[in-house]
Amino acid sequence: MNKVMSNKWVIAMYVLPALLLILVLIYVPIILTGYYGLMKWDGIGEMDFIGLSNYTKLLTDDDFWQSSLNSLLLAIFSLLSLIGYLAISLVLAAKIKGADLLRKIYLIPMLLSSVAIAQLWLKIYHPSNGLLNSLLVFFGVDNPPAWLAEPNLVLGAIFVPIIWQYAGFYILIYYAALKNIPDSVIEAAKIDGASPLQIAYKIKLPLIMGVIKVTIVLSFVGSLKYFDLIYVMTGGGPNGASEVIASYMYKQAFNSYNFGYGSAVGFALLLFCLLATVVIQRLTRTDDEVEY
Amino acid sequence: MTETGQQEVKLQKSEGNAAGKFGYAILYLILGIIAVLQIYPLIWLVFFSLKTNQEVFNASPFALPADPKWENYATVWTQGNINLYFFNSVWITLVSVALTILLASFVTFAITRMNWKLSKLVLGLFMIGLMIPVHSTLIPLFNFFLSINLIDHPLALILTYTAFNLPLTIMILLGFYSTLPREVEEAAVIDGSSIHRIFFQITLPMSMPVMSTTFIINMIYNWNEFVFINTFISSDSYKTLTVGIQNFIGQYSTDWGAIGATLVISILPILIAFVFLSNKIVEGIAAGAVKG
Description:
The complex is a heterodimer of chains A (about 290) and B (about 290).
Chain A: H1 8-36, E1 39-40, E2 48-49, H2 53-60, H3 62-92, H4 99-107, H5 114-124, H6 131-138, H7 154-179, H8 183-191, H9 196-207, H10 209-224, H11 228-233, H12 245-255, H13 259-283
Antiparallel strand pairs in A: 1-2
Helix pairs in contact in A: 1-13, 3-7, 3-10, 4-7, 8-9, 10-13, 12-13
Chain B: H1 3-15, H2 17-49, H3 53-58, H4 71-79, H5 82-113, H6 119-128, H7 138-147, H8 154-177, H9 183-190, H10 195-206, H11 208-224, H12 227-232, H13 241-251, H14 256-290
């Protein structure tokens, strides 16, 4: 048994193709993006080594910090919306008839491509014929705004389809976690006279804290990486008001042909994501994991 | 539970009955409204895909299409190149998914069934791959495919999709493989079967249920992918639906019926898959998220 299952050639044959793919297409590029950041390079011609000047330029680049701030705002909005998803999941998991069907309906937007979602919401936000402004006019609002053209509104307007897309995903995760709590725990609390709110707050939430922590990382780091939806809906506009880190990187490289500087932005994105993951895990660390 | 305990619970239940029913009614109302918000934009999309521009601009956006224009679909299917993009989406998705599942199964088999020193390290490499932001790899990947003449070639997409979906696929497979009984495989080893025979004729068929989960999840991800194809592919003949509809809408930006029809065509396969395989999809999404 052991001899057959330790055959080095077979192991190499089974593991190497996949390993080679992730090394060449994920790990090497991650290192290269930091390296390209040291270059002045138009993407086609020769690379010129310019040391850290791309990275020092980043520190004083207002457009980069504006896009980082926008990404951070989206990440904070996403974190706050988790509270709403959690509340809905608590209700859904509390012996609601049709809960299974409802959570599947909630999930549907999550299955669509960000491009399709962006195009659909461009129509919903259409200033004169869109669903939203038609509704507002119907309720007597005189001059509803052109949502995606107002620098003050655009980020919030973009966040709505993001909620629409991801709500079902987080509700699904919380619901599954809540359903895993044994009935006996809840029954015992009821007999002790705990109110439904107390049960939710003092028993259910602590029991699914592990899952909540995972979703905090997922939503925060995931938001730092938003690209598709914003690229299609506004292209970062108007005037950079909805620019995020990934779209700024894309523009620098593929529209302005500053591949060196774009790589530096891409590397900064990687660092922000890793930093956020580590910080969140530190902040949410607890000594004793609850078990049941 | 003591008898008094039971009586107390009953008492509390009857007291809370009227208020409880009212509370439940409100909860159902809220859950129902959320369901409508999740679904209605898609219904509205189907409506305007069947309208003429005149209807869109002059009639209420909530109205049913007066005389459904099914020809909107026929027109975009042939004249808008949507049939080509659709075909490309299908084959590129299928080839990538098949390759991903095969390679991931090899790796999972080697990690869970075979004995080798580096297995923990290799597994770690795959799992860390889950955390890497794809945008940070974009510029180096573009340069890599350019240098080996694979830019504007579907192989660049297939390899990239496979590499980036391997970590998640392996993670889902691992959970299942670790629960599979090993007796059959052990008996086969004693009977002198080769390891390939065991993998292809015993383990792979036994993992059918989890393979179908990974299949549908991978299919959704690849079908919806946008960044890589938007960056790597420039000729129309290799474009998939996500970038294809972007192109198409750029050209026909004022024709609501045509835009609606292309969007419906692009999301329909996923919606149909969801109707028949919703449990598999829910399972795959939950498995992929919670452990990440």
